[in-house]
Design a protein that fits this description.
about 55% helix; alpha/beta; two-stranded antiparallel sheet; binds adenosine-5'-triphosphate; Arc Repressor Mutant, subunit A; globular; single chain; 2 domains; 18 helices; five-stranded parallel sheet; Rossmann fold; binds magnesium ion
């Protein structure tokens, strides 16, 4: 039986993202001039958007897309990152997905014996593609998966910064390849940006959670988007879901599942309670974390200086904030250097933690 014929009471929706898709389309239709960083909170739809963008484009234009999902390909490779980056074809072959760089046995041997320059090997392939009238596109998704490798030793760090400088040469200088780097960890993205001295060599684009009108369109048309026929939502109920989780896809989906069997007030109350519990668990006995999150009772967003009056040692502050970003409690927007809770539900969780309500 084909997958399309399987019967479910709820299907995965895709809510149109015209603005974002058009932005990416404009970007790809211009000669590459800088590295393109896509950032945005956890699960805001960055990866899905990239796939939705590439699918029709690959039918319309001659493209060669090298899509590296660092979570899938490299997370467990530790110190072998250097080798893995170049030899990804071996890894991909096992998964029967398209070859990454075309490296034959002789070049591979030379690379491993350090008798060939890996950057020259990559550039040669990009040049060959453009000569054939094919636009090369290199996508590095889930950059945060490199964080551990990056900080593990100087060799890795130097390789990664050299790689980004090579990306600058390929984009800003040679205008050869579109390079897109996506991540939900704005702190790590900022570290790579600063260490590799990418000022004026990179462009940033934020992919955020859905806007209110898109959420309302989805929730008021459940049959159309999620093929849910068992219940409908009123405008007031849809508004309550928006107030609880905002435009976070995964959270909306969880709530829609709960609504098959439970009344909405109860579902939303328990959801907020769950997030409060997560905040409580994350803070544990560390009162410094509590003091940081307390700032968001009064502020929507905060700069690092806004945490200073909380009396936390300045030396500890950066590390604590980074930990909150890494654990997806806070989001760090690298373009404005501001921190804020990952989504509406986290704001509820923080508020209820301090009120000790529900
Ligand atoms: N436009 C959309 N409409 C409906 N659901 C979506 C849409 N975009 C993403 N989703 C869903 O939201 C979830 C998160 O999407 P995705 O993995 O693309 O986010 P991400 O920003 O790449 O996450 P991460 O921060 O972990 O990299 C997925 O389950 C996906 O199916
Ligand atoms: Mg992703």
């Amino acid at each position: 039986m084909s997958k399309d014929k399987l019967e479910y009471r709820k299907y995965t929706a895709f809510i149109d993202r015209q603005t974002e898709l058009q932005y990416l389309r404009n970007y790809i239709n211009e000669e590459p001039e800088s590295i393109f960083f896509i950032h945005g909170p956890k699960s805001s739809g960055k990866t899905t958007l990239l796939h939705k963008f590439l699918e029709p484009l690959q039918k319309e234009q001659k493209l060669n897309v090298k899509f590296m999902d660092l979570c899938e390909s490299f997370a467990n490779l530790g110190e072998d990152f250097f080798k893995a980056f170049l030899m990804a074809d071996d890894l991909d072959m096992k998964k029967k997905t398209p070859v990454f760089f075309k490296i034959d046995a002789a070049v591979k041997r030379k690379l491993l014996e350090k008798r060939a320059d890996p950057f020259k090997v990559m550039k040669a392939e990009f040049l060959e593609l453009t000569r054939e009238g094919i636009k090369p596109v290199l996508i590095i998704d889930e950059l945060q998966a490199l964080e551990e490798i990056y900080f593990a030793n100087d060799k890795n760090r130097l390789f990664i910064t050299a790689l980004f400088n090579f990306f600058v040469a390929l984009t800003k200088q040679a205008h050869l390849v579109h390079i897109i780097v996506a991540s939900s960890d704005g702190c790590f993205l900022n570290t790579v940006y600063n260490d590799s001295r990418l000022k004026k060599c990179a462009a940033f684009y934020k992919v955020d959670y859905l806007a209110k009108h898109d959420v309302m369109r989805w929730l008021l048309n459940l049959e159309k988007y999620s093929k849910i026929t068992a219940y409908r939502l009123t405008e007031g109920e849809a508004g309550k879901i928006w107030d609880t989780v905002g435009g976070s896809f995964g959270e909306i989906r969880d709530i829609l599942t709960e609504l098959f069997d439970n009344p909405i007030e109860e579902v939303l109350r328990l959801y907020k309670k769950k997030i409060k519990g997560m905040i409580e668990y994350y803070i544990g006995m560390d009162m410094r974390k509590e003091k940081i999150l307390e700032v968001f009772l009064k502020k929507e967003t905060a700069h690092i200086k806004d945490f200073i009056p909380q009396g936390i040692e300045v030396g500890d502050l950066e590390g604590l904030l980074q930990d909150m970003v890494r654990n997806n409690i806070l989001y760090f927007d690298p373009t404005e250097a501001i921190y804020y809770p990952q989504g509406k539900s986290y704001r509820w969780g923080i508020r209820l933690y301090f009120e000790q309500g529900i």
